[in-house]
């Protein structure tokens, strides 16, 4: 304000120079004092932050300079090629850390300027997807259709010659009408293709939000994965997906699973000297570590793999390929018929038999050319009308509709062809594991649920340590745990029943040393320190046999330590055996407090393995049959799908679970129905092939056992779906015809390896199976309708072309026109629009029904004998009535030529409308069942009828039609409605089971 006032006074003229000088001096003093205050304030600020500002500027300069000699390309190749020699030339891992201005323990500085500079120098941790296709792309693609190009050229010539012959007022109608019709067809086709592709793009953008733990400025914090930068230090734990390429800094017993990258079970150990390289997209299989990020985003191994997958983002599914073959076949037949019609018309024209036929010596060249263009336009329309191009469109619409519906039901389809493949699944391999703690033994008895308040706080604290410090998670939310099913169940039990808070626990305790679970010793443990009193404790957990052998004492419910005598030991062993017999997985816990002096002297850096531990307790974890699983298994078996349970549990536990879920019947023989993984491995190839069908339960199964089982099932011709949740399931998920990852808690590698992700439980598998079969059925329904239309069109074209001694003037799908040819082409394009695009939307968006579950589709032809029966019956009826109207319509109805042509056109369209109802049910005679539930179908039928009325009654000049009276409309409707009783009667005719055309089968 003072500055502005000073400026105004200086610029304001005055007659009193003396007063002006005083005012100027006063305000100069004010302005100068404020300036000094501002400078002083900034000087203090700079003094306080100068060091930080200089550091930031130096960081930007250093990073920019460093990229000239140590750029993102060399860093990317360093990890991707696992080049130890190059790493040594950089000074090892420490040299890379120093070059990136990071710190192995404290990470980078936690400030926006440093993060921004690193993003500018090395890129961001995001993956660039190919841009979605716009509507213009689909319009351009439609214009590339040779039929459309020829029609546009012919329309242009027709427009030019029409204007020259009849003037602008009348001459534009022929060519202009066709131009308008072609534009409508192109736009409708483009929009109908753009919509489902837009849905696919939306579905493909569904991802799983992921945060990672990093160290910045010495503080651990969780940040979104896309905010990671080169130089960050990332904390890795079991179950974590590695978010970027990097180098191992330090940790304990780190091993990673590269199966998502190598497509095989590939678990490797990572260490500082021999293999410090970490790939983005891998999973941490064991241990924990700190990682230095060296490459992010598209520069990582995972990013480069994704870029190759995105080169062709719109995959062609198997059923689309088969329908494209049918479309190609109909187009070739259509071209043959159109060529024949063209030859017949040429003969008629040059013989002078057409209304404006050729007269030697009198017909001028431009008149001949104009007629040829008109004939060619109609021939192109005939050929285009015969092409069943709505078939691929029906697949796209059905896929989009089905995927959208499944997404609403907590199912995400990652691979479009999986929607089709699941329809023909014959076998589903699944774990059906939902484990929960059902029994807890403490002291001399079981602690009932809800009675944990009677347990001493010291025992509760020890259990919290034994359970909570064995997990690597930092949240008390159950959904955040990514662990083995047994440990996940124990963690959930401790949180829900015993009030464990893992975040608070890890703030008060520190792990000094850990030993992973050893399958040979059947135990694992860790050494920890309590931060408040610096006491050192040893915790072990494992099987009851292994833990009890290390214990000489036990805790009772009051926290008092007592000696384990012979009777007590026998009792504990007996309890463990009884729990195992009841189908429970038993986990025992033991503890010992050790001396801090021993730890400080370096004596107890390793875990104590003596027999002086105190037994804490025993938990029993059971595979529960989830609510609704038994009904879901029954539904799958009702649908002809065999459910095979593969589990790591022992034979007794696995058999109990399978019996409870309905996979096994109590009277079934264990020898023939249940095998162990090792036993299956020991079979010969002939024995595996002979027994794999009979196996319903595989117990004690390793990942390689499951993979082997899937391979032999596929060799025997089964369409196999595998349901997995863990990292180790990745290989089997990829080997199966359909890989399904189960649950929101499923490991990221399992999700990445699967075709379908179900976010809740096994019950949704039934919904996926229903939608798959519904989609297959809807495609069959539309294929039947479309082929009926194509056969009818071609038959009428052929008969009218070769049988007429003098070509009549008809304006219908299959016409040989004389004089007003363009209107016939316009009507063909109209039929192509309403019977292709709109019919595809109406018939390809059905709802699942229980009846479809009775109809397995494995090995079924796409076009079945039942469908051929329906197609030929309707085509014969339509051809017969339309040819009757064509040849005898004037006499039968007492109308002129123009009205007869309109009636033929109207009857043809209405026949297709009524045939849509017939196509809804391929086998059943009741074609109106559940029609009230399909509002989209009813709405489109109503729209087609309204548009047809408008075409006939109000667009005479545009469509070349004549208005019909009530009797003529009634005759057209009555003749078309007769297709209903024809369909009802034809469905009573039996057909052979052997397919007519084996090359149109659903599965190769």
TrEMBL record:
UniProt domain P-type ATPase A: residue ranges: 211-306
Places the protein is found: Membrane
Known catalytic reactions: Ca(2+)(in) + ATP + H2O = Ca(2+)(out) + ADP + phosphate + H(+)
Domain Cation-transporting P-type ATPase C-terminal residue range list: 821-989
Domain Cation-transporting P-type ATPase N-terminal: 91-158
InterPro entries associated with the record: ATPase_P-typ_cation-transptr_C (IPR006068), ATPase_P-typ_cation-transptr_N (IPR004014), ATPase_P-typ_cyto_dom_N (IPR023299), ATPase_P-typ_TM_dom_sf (IPR023298), ATPase_P-typ_transduc_dom_A_sf (IPR008250), ATPase_P-type_domA (IPR059000), HAD-like_sf (IPR036412), P-type_ATPase_IIB (IPR006408)
Pfam families (alphabetical): Cation_ATPase, Cation_ATPase_C, Cation_ATPase_N, E1-E2_ATPase
SUPFAM superfamilies linked to this entry: Calcium ATPase, transduction domain A, Calcium ATPase, transmembrane domain M, HAD-like, Metal cation-transporting ATPase, ATP-binding domain N
Keywords from the named record: ATP-binding, Calcium, Calcium transport, Calmodulin-binding, Ion transport, Magnesium, Membrane, Metal-binding, Nucleotide-binding, Transmembrane, Transmembrane helix, Transport
Coiled-coil spans in chain: none
EC number assigned by the record: 7.2.2.10
Predominant subcellular localization, coarse grouping: membrane
Membrane-spanning ranges: 147-163, 175-195, 333-352, 372-401, 781-804, 824-845, 936-956, 968-986
Topology of the protein relative to the lipid bilayer: Multi-pass membrane protein
Family annotation (PANTHER family): CALCIUM-TRANSPORTING ATPASE 13, PLASMA MEMBRANE-TYPE-RELATED, CATION TRANSPORTING ATPASE
Function: Catalyzes the hydrolysis of ATP coupled with the transport of calcium.
Family: Belongs to the cation transport ATPase (P-type) (TC 3.A.3) family. Type IIB subfamily.
Protein name from the UniProt record: Calcium-transporting ATPase
Source organism: Hevea brasiliensis
